[in-house]
Amino acid sequence: MRKQNPDFPLSFFKSVQESSHFTTMWKRSCSFLPSLKHSQFTASHFSCTPVHFEPTKKICIIGSGPAGFYFAQNLFKKVPDISIDMLEKLPVPYGLVRYGVAPDHPEVKNVINTFEKVASNKNFKFHGNVTLGRDVKFSELRQAYHAVVLTYGCNEDRELGIPGENLPNVISARKFVGWYNGLPEDKDLEVDLSSETVVVLGQGNVAVDVSRILLSPIDLLKVTDITEYSLQALSQSKVKTVYLIGRRGPLQAAFTIKELREMTKLPGVQTLLQKEHFAGTENIIPNLPRARKRLSELLVTTASKEQEGSRYFRPTFLHKPVEILGSSESGVVQGVKFEINDIDHEKGIARGTGKYEVNECGLVLRSIGYKGTSVDSDIPFDSNRGVVVHENGVYSAGWIHTGPTGVILSTMSDAYDQSNRLIEDINKKTLNVTNSKPGFSAIENTLNSKSVVTVNFEGWKKIDKIEVERGAAVGKPREKIVDVAEMLRIGGS
Amino acid sequence: MALRTLCYIGRAIESTKIGLHTVQTGARSLSTSIRVLNKPEYSVTFVRPDGEKIKAKGKEGDTLLDVVVNHDLDIDGYGACEGTLTCSTCHVILKPDDFAKLPDKPSEEENDMLDLAYGLTDTSRLGCQIQLSKQLDGLEVQLPATINDARS
Ligand SMILES: Cc1cc2nc3c(=O)[nH]c(=O)nc-3n(C[C@H](O)[C@H](O)[C@H](O)COP(=O)(O)OP(=O)(O)OC[C@H]3O[C@@H](n4cnc5c(N)ncnc54)[C@H](O)[C@@H]3O)c2cc1C
Ligand code: FES
C-alpha cells in the first residue's frame, strides 16, 4: 500500500554505479542502503571520504513496543550523533502490536512498517531475549548509558478483589489474548470452551476483542495469524453467548464505536441489548458530545434492530460483580453473582439497588485492565499509580508512563512528548552527554557471564521469514513460533 | 540488481519527468509509470498549527496520505495505519467551501474514526479518504494541533 520513496535522485544513483571504489567504501561504512536517509551524509558529502564515527551519545531503551520505537524514531530524527540500544524481554520485537492487537485486525499492525524503518538505522541495535531486572540490572544500565528509557509496558492484571476470582476457568483477558496471539508464557493456558455461556467482566475494547474472537465464524479466523492451537480449540468451541458486563450505564460504555459496529456486522451473531437500560436517555443523547452521541445512537438502534444468527453478543449494563460462584465438587466456575445498579443518566452515577442476580456461565474472562509494575527495585516507581516517574537520566513512555490506557496513537503522542523532553534536557545541558560511556559493551559482559543468548534484528528477520513461510503453507499471513527455545535456535546469536 | 536499477530509474523519471523517449524497452513498470505520468497533477498545501505551510503536488486520484508519503513530508505520525481507516492520524481540517466541494460525504467508518480524532471540527476529514481532483486543485488544509487519538 505504502509507496516507497525514490530515496536517491538519479544523478546520485549514477555516481554510485560509476565508482566501484566508492561502492566498496559505501558498503563498508554503511551496510544497509535505505538507512542513507537517516544517516548524516548527503550527496554533497561524497566528495570527501565518508568516515563512520562511533556516536558519542548512548541511549538504552527497554521494551520494543510502540512506545520504544516511536521514542527512538524521534531521537534519530532530532539528535545527531546518537546510538540507541533496545533491550527486549522476548526474542522478538513489537510488544502488544504482536501480542495484543487482535489477529483479525491486521491493518492495525501496519505501524510495524514504521518500526522497521527505525530499526534499519545503522545506529540502532535490537537485543532480544534480554530481561531488565533478571539478566541485567537497572543500575548497570544507568552506568553504561547517558540515559535509560523505560518503555516496558504493563505486564500484570488488575483484579476485582471479589470471592471466587481464582476458580478454575476464571481467566484474565490478558492471558486469553496472550494465548490466542501466541505469547510464549501463555501458550499452555488451559481454556475450557465446552460451556455455551461466557461472561466477560469489563466493557473496554479488549473485552470486545475477546468476545469477538469467541463468537467469530471460524472461517474468518482461519485466514489470520491466530495460533494454530487456539484455532483448533475455537473450532471445537461450544460457546454461543457472550455477556459483556459492566457496572455503569449505556451512556458510559467504555468500548468505542468502531468495535461495536464491527460486532453488529459479525456474520451469524446477534448483538442483543436490554431496551430498559435506555429508558430516560432519549432527551440526553441528542445533546451529548459527538463521539458519545454517535456511540449511544448506535446502541439504541441496535437495541431495536431485527437480527439473524445463532450466536449472541450481549452487552449488559448496570451489573456489578460481587462473587464468582463455583461448583462445590469440582470448583469449576458456574456463574457470577451481580448487584443490580441504578443510574442517573444525566450525572452518569451508578448506585447499588441491593438487588442481586446470578448469571450462569462456564467461563469467566476478567477484563478490567492491565497493571504496571516495577521490574527492578532501583527504578523510580510510583507503586500506587503503577507508573515510572522521571528522574535525571531516566525517562519513560507508553503504558508504563501513562498507565495502561489508550491506543497505539496515544502511546505515539506520549513517546514523542517524552523524547522531546530528553532532547530538551540535552540542549539545556541538564542531561550530561559529554562524558564517555561504554554502552552495550558493558552489558554484553554481564550477558556473556550469564550465558544469555540474544537475538539481534537480523535474527528476528530470520524468525519472521520462517513464520511467514509456515503461514503461507496453511493460507495464513504468518504462523507464529510460540516456543522461546525454537526462536533462539533460529534467531539467536 | 538490473531490475532494481531499472526500478530506480523508473522512479527517478517519474519524479523528474525527463528523458521519457530515451528509455523505451523492457520493464512493465516503466509503461505503468508512463501512464501515471499522463495523469494531471494538482497542488495541495498542508498548514501546520504554527502557520508554516508545506506545499506539495500529487496526481489525480492520489489521496492526501499518498501525497504525504510520496514526498516524505515531515508530519509526525501522519498516516500510521496506512489508509486502512483504523487510526485518525491523517486528520485534516478543511475550509467550509472545500469541505462542501468534496464529492463524497464521509462514510460511517470514516466518521467512526473521526469521532476519535483530536481537535475535531465540523469540516474535519481524514486525509486518506480525500482524493485530489481538478475541483480541489490548490486545496489548503489545516493540520490539527496534536495528532492524537482520544480512544483512551
Ligand atoms: C489486547 C489489546 C489489544 C489492543 N488493540 C489495539 C488496537 O487494536 N489498536 C490500537 O491502537 N491499540 C490497541 N491496543 C493498545 C496498544 O497495544 C498499546 O497502546 C501499546 O502497545 C502500548 O505500547 P507500549 O510500548 O507502552 O507497551 P507494549 O506494547 O506492552 O510494549 C512493552 C514491551 O516491553 C517488553 N518488556 C516487558 N518487561 C520487560 C523487561 N523487564 N525487560 C525488557 N523488556 C520488557 C515487553 O515484552 C513488550 O515487548 C491494544 C492493547 C491490548 C492490551
Ligand atoms: S491513515 Fe489511518 S485513518 Fe487515515
The number of domains of chain A: 3
Shape of chain B: globular
How many helix segments of chain B? Answer: 5
Shape of chain A: globular
Distance between the termini of chain A: 33 Å
- What is the residue-averaged pLDDT of chain A? 90
Total helices of chain A: the number is 17
- Spans of chain B with pLDDT under 50 lasting ≥5 residues? 1-33, 148-152
Trace the largest sheet of chain B across and list its strands.
2-1-5
Radius of gyration of chain A: 26 Å
Beta-strand residue fraction of chain B: 15-25%
The CATH class assignment of the largest domain in chain A is Alpha Beta
In this structure, how is the largest beta sheet of chain A organized?
Answer: 6 strands, parallel
Terminal-residue CA separation of chain B = 47 Å
What radius of gyration of chain B results from the CA coordinates?
17 Å
Derived from helix and strand composition plus strand pairing, the structural class of chain A reads alpha/beta
CATH architecture of the largest domain in chain A: 3-Layer(bba) Sandwich
* pLDDT < 50 stretches of chain A: 1-47
